[in-house]
Amino acid sequence: MAAHHHEDTTSSIPSPIIMVMVPFTAQSHLNQALQLSFLISSYQIEVHYAASSKHNRQVKHRLTGGEDKSSDLLSKIHFHDLPIPHFLSPLPNPNSTTKFPAHLQPSFDATMHLRHPVGTLLRQLSTTTRRLIVIHDTLMFSVVQDVADIPNAESYSFRCVSAFSTCCMKSLYKGESIPPVEECSLTNEIKRLAADQAEFVKIKQGDILNTCRQMESSYLDLLDKNESNLNNKQWAIAPLINRVRNINSTGGGNECLLWLEKQPPKSVMYVSFGSSTSMTDEQIEAMAFGLKESKQRFLWVLRDADKGDIFTGEVRNLKLPNGFEESVKETGMVVRDWVPQMEILAHRSVGGFMSHCGWNSCLESLSLGVPIAAWPIHSDQPYNALFISEILKVGIEVREWADQSEVVSSFAIKRAVERLMDSEEGERIRKRAEEVGGLLRDAAEEGGVSQMEMDSFIAHITR
Ligand SMILES: *[C@@H]1O[C@H](CO)[C@@H](O)[C@H](O)[C@H]1NC(C)=O
Ligand SMILES: *[C@@H]1O[C@H](CO)[C@@H](O)[C@H](O)[C@H]1NC(C)=O
Ligand SMILES: *[C@@H]1O[C@H](CO)[C@@H](O)[C@H](O)[C@H]1NC(C)=O
After folding, report:
1. Between the CA of residue 251 and those of 72, 106, 270, 277, 343, what are the distances in Å?
2. On the CB side of 280, how many CA atoms lie within 13 Å of its CA?
3. So what's the pLDDT on residue 117?
């Protein structure tokens, strides 16, 4: 990607405004907040990122692929390691019928104690600037509530899920195949945490959404209309990640990319379920046989869900059937480490993505024109899967959401892989995905709709 036009002016005038990012502490939220921070920093605005030391360390570690190389982008962000209470970091339970990562709740609960340290930081920074801009996750309203008492501070929420899924969750959009929110495999604890934010919603002056108006305009309009009483502004700025990340930057020498180099164009199904999915032993076995029997090439990231503290203690040993890796070594690769997903999806050998449909993964895949075999697990994912398969028509569903509690058979997995990678239908879907990819990348270019909304947000906060 071309360097962003605002980047790398070394001698900058002291910023008349300061921006503070307050992320929610699950990996996908942390990362999207960091990507937005980079983008805002590229406008020569001083950017602060406020989280616990563990979560700051996590987001930096994952960005650089675990190597402690300092990144030019990272060095521009002021990280604040704020204190939170000690929290337990249990292993995920793959056998639980609720697929939401309930084992992260202690980390989420500890995070909600950030109100006072964040308030102190905001008050300090507010004395050094004309205007303090606070951008916070939609789950962090209560943490930033003291913004209301700081005269030169303004807050904006950052929504890192799709407008479509938000409309579904708020029942603003009702389609026949839309699963009700109760069925999204959420825990009562996370529902309560989300509900606890409601009373502070009025502090925000607008919403930044990690989506693209060209892709979701009708759902953005629905949201805007629903909040018309708040007199909010709305900016849709996706895709974020393409604009600020040099896609050659972390991949060099990575074993996945070396392996992909040897595969034919668009021949490989990339299989990854993100950072919050824990599959049962039985499901892992079915996956192994399904991939093998499809006789298609695959790159499978076999990982357990993140723990609350990714740096400590044991992780579950994910077992494959005996001799599996040896038996597929001509066509398949299994990796257990964190991988440079953007670089993988950008690789010419990748022709499909079997995904849990976290919004971050969807955006990465879509903006690189890679069609999706959707296998949602929890939260907003079933809505994203519907959006991908039924509305954008850039993917297929591996199984019906109604069957979510059952193990997906190796046969169903094999069929889905064949359908996407080796059929006329798959070809059509791939073409359509490439079109959507072009549209999203254009949106982020100079003069594109997302770039213009970003410029408009910057003009608004620096007014
Ligand atoms: C990435 O690497 C390719 C091949 O080495 C090169 O052509 C391209 O310009 C690089 N892109 C960036 C953004 O550096
Ligand atoms: C999940 O259930 C399987 C089979 O019943 C069992 O072998 C496994 O130990 C369980 N895993 C955990 C983490 O409880
Ligand atoms: C917004 O949606 C909620 C339901 O989620 C509804 O109760 C409320 O009345 C709506 N507000 C407006 C202004 O449409």
Report:
1. 16, 33, 16, 24, 6
2. 13
3. 98
Q: Which residues contact 60 (CB under 8 A, 6 or more apart)?
A: 74, 79
Which residues in the chain show pLDDT less than 50?
1-5, 7-14, 246-250
Q: Which ligand is nearest to the CA of 242?
A: 1
- Could you tell me the residue ranges of all domains in the chain? 15-244+447-461, 253-441
Residue among 93, 279, 280 to mutate when testing ligand 2 (max atoms within 8 A of CB): 280
Report the pLDDT value the prediction gives residue 152, as an integer from 0 to 100.
96
Query: Is it true that 15-244+447-461 and 253-441 share their CATH fold?
Result: yes
User: Rounded CA gap, 308 and 310, in Å?
Assistant: 6
Which residues are tagged catalytic? 29, 137
CA 248 to centroid of ligand 1, rounded, Å? 6
Q: For residue 94, report the distance from its CA to the centre of ligand 2, in Å.
A: 8
pTM of the model: 0.92
Residues whose CB is less than 8 angstroms from the CB of residue 306 and which lie 6 or more positions away in sequence, other chains included: 26, 27, 101, 104, 275, 276
| pLDDT number for residue 16 | 87
Structure-token pair, residue 275: 């950072």
Per-residue pLDDT, 8 = 45
Distance in angstroms (rounded) separating the CA atoms of residues 381 and 30: 18
Q: What is the CATH number of domain 15-244+447-461?
A: 3.40.50.2000
Class of the CATH domain delimited by 253-441: alpha beta
Q: Which of 93, 95, 279, 318 to mutate to test the pocket of ligand 2 (most atoms within 8 A of CB)?
A: 95
